Amino acid sequence: MEYTNKHGLPDPVVRALTSYEKGEVVEGLRVTTLIDSPRVSQLRQSNAALLTEDVSDMVWKIMGTAIHEVFEKAASNAYVSEERLSHTVDGTVISGAIDYQFEDDGEVDLKDYKSTSTYSITSGDKPEWERQLNVYAYLIRHAKGLKVRSASVIAVLRNWTKSQAERSSGYPQASIAEVKIKLWSDEEQDAYVKERVRLHRVAELEKDFGLPPCTPYEQWAKPAKWAVYKGASKRAKLFDTEDDAQEFAGQSKDCSVVERPATLTRCENNYCRVADYCDQWR
User: Fold this and answer.
1) Which end of the chain is more exposed for a tag (fewer CB within 10 A), N or C?
2) What average pLDDT score do residues 95-111 get?
3) Phi-psi region of 28 (alpha: psi -120 to 50; beta: other; left: phi over 0)
4) Tell me, what DSSP letter sits at residue 220?
5) What is 2-212's CATH topology?
């Protein structure tokens, strides 16, 4: 990884931000890689020497690391903190560092710390959290022989504001929240992990012949919407179909309908960091 400093940050800040990136060397697939796109994983490996990242984009990543360290230091002997577990599936090692485990009578309460935005809470849609924690539960079951009885995310909300919380009951009422995560059955966890390993293995074996495409979910696809504006108002009412938008607009005078095209948020903003090398995106 090559780092840039587009905003001229002072050297001590640059060194502090980039020092956290070295990390530990991990055998096999990390859980976060396992649940992500096989195409992205392979493109990052094959273009590693070409990838760049500006140090200014690393601030929230480092803040997340710092939060983990603060919580880890406060853990008592009653908890297992930052334990890395691994298990071999069809010849592939998968591993994950689990933030927090409370073990009691052969069962485990599992928690994962995340620095995130309030949208992660208000949207009510974070399937990647459910997938990640269920793979952690899989590792605990296979590596330690223990059953996970509960799972949750401790979300530190970096853009939380007290004024918004006072105005809206649907807004998180504190800057930190615990979000319960649905646990799958043992059979569902086993099948999911086995299939993800297979997909990554296929991508690795067939990379010279063409990588499997990212799914719309992996591209963070947002479908097209039709916005109905009234007069000079900048606020609009959104519809999933043009027919519904036109029907609504026809009920009022001075209304206009504007299409908001579908977007592939991850690709368009290069959040995957390999969009420039992706033939699917091109």
Assistant:
1) C
2) 94
3) left
4) T
5) Lambda Exonuclease; Chain A (3.90.320)
Write out the two tokens for 108: 């485990």
Q: Helices 127-139 and 186-205 meet at what angle, rounded to 10?
A: 100
Q: Select from 98, 86, 21 the least CA-distant residue to 54.
A: 21
Phi and psi torsions of 247, nearest 5°: -65, -45
Counting every residue written for the chain, the total comes to 282
* Domain regions of the chain by residue span: 2-212, 224-261
| Coil, helix or strand at residue 261 | coil
**pTM value?**
0.89
Residues 6+ apart with CB under 8 A from 134: 151, 181, 183, 184, 188, 189, 192
**Distance (Å, whole) CA 140 – CA 134:** 10
Calculate the alpha carbon distances from 93 to 28, 90, 96, 107, 225 in Å.
Answer: 5, 8, 10, 24, 42
